[in-house]
């Protein structure tokens, strides 16, 4: 019986050459390390201004309707080389707008989604699994994965919000499915705001007012929204920073997206410093030093992959100098 081609090499270079056509890569011949001492990411700190997004959406409202675009939105694409979609490694977010009289077609998909309402008048709503939920500024609305959902505006002015989805996580794991409602729009079976898929701002504001200051000195007052049963991959919280707040610096393996509801201040994220205002969004990639300061009392909505990392026992956080 002839010798096996892998049993005859007299040196490692020859062995490596014969392993390659068989789709083997020897551990002693890695192209690059597969393990490293601490987290590293290509995603960078970034900041998007609401005044820019609103101007772009208003122009898009003149140029494109929901027949041409299933959703009229502006994705916040992290500006690292080669990225064309994701906001952070596991998350994506987008500003969205719907005009008076419009309806966005109903569909469902594997990714979990939610929206934070920025500016709407009476008549803007979402329909999730047959429940019409009318939107109010500051609301958090959940769309669990594979739940039917669409939006509409029966009012007299545009509605604006920020969408958050775990689409990049689904891209990584690959269980992506999408289905469109057969008749385009799911008819509401009920109209309610007493629903587990909505966290009304009035309720969240009361909880914030009653919350004790966070003992870590990082968050001011913080309220966690109990969304885990519906959205198991994302953690949601609201922070209230008093005027003059100077937060302690820290870092976490969790990727964080921060949307400003009210107030103004600065965020130091890694080597970048951002001046934020109402409606702005900024991101804190994994393991970047992060510090908040507020000039005026501020409320911040935070979406992160902390829930997923905690389930997988990956989560780590620590104070930094």
UniProtKB/TrEMBL annotation:
What is a single Pfam family found in this protein's UniProt entry?
Cupin_2
Q: What is the lineage of its organism?
A: Bacteria, Pseudomonadati, Pseudomonadota, Betaproteobacteria, Burkholderiales
Q: Which keywords does this chain's UniProt record carry?
A: Dioxygenase, Oxidoreductase
> Is Cell division there in the keyword field?
no
Task: List, alphabetically, the Gene3D superfamilies matched.
Answer: Jelly Rolls
Say yes or no: keyword Oxidoreductase present. Answer: yes
Tree of life domain: Bacteria
Q: Where is the Cupin type-2 domain?
A: 96-163
What protein name is recorded for this chain? Gentisate 1,2-dioxygenase
Entry-linked InterPro entries: Cupin_2, GDO-like, RmlC-like_jellyroll, RmlC_Cupin_sf
């Amino acid at each position: 019986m002839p010798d096996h081609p892998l049993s005859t090499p007299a040196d490692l270079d020859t062995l490596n050459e014969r392993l390659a056509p068989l789709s083997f890569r020897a551990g002693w011949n890695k192209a690059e390390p597969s393990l490293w001492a601490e987290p590293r990411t290509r995603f960078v700190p970034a900041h998007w201004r609401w005044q820019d997004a609103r101007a772009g959406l208003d122009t898009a409202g003149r140029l494109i309707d929901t027949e041409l675009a299933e959703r009229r939105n502006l994705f916040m694409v992290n500006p690292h080389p080669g990225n064309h979609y994701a906001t952070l490694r596991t998350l994506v977010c987008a500003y969205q707008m719907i005009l008076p009289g419009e309806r966005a077609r109903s569909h469902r998909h594997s990714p979990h989604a939610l929206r934070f309402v920025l500016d709407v008048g009476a008549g803007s709503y979402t329909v999730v699994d047959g429940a019409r939920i009318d939107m109010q500024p500051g609301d958090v609305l959940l769309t669990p994965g594979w739940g039917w959902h669409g939006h509409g505006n029966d009012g007299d002015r545009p509605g604006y919000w920020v969408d958050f989805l775990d689409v990049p996580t689904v891209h990584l794991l690959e269980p992506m499915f999408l289905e469109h409602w057969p008749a385009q729009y799911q008819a509401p079976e009920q109209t309610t705001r007493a629903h587990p898929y909505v966290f009304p701002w009035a309720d969240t504001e009361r909880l914030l007012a009653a919350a004790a200051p966070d003992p870590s000195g990082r968050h001011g007052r913080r309220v966690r929204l109990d969304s885990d049963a519906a959205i198991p991959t994302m953690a949601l919280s609201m922070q209230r920073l008093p005027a003059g707040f100077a937060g302690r610096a820290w870092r976490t393996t969790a990727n964080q997206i921060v949307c400003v509801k009210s107030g103004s201040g600065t965020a130091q994220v890694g080597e970048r410093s951002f001046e934020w205002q109402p409606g702005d969004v900024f991101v804190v990639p994994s393991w970047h030093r992060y510090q908040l300061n507020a000039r005026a009392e501020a409320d911040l909505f935070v979406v992160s992959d902390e829930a997923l990392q905690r389930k997988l026992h990956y989560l780590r956080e620590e104070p930094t100098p």
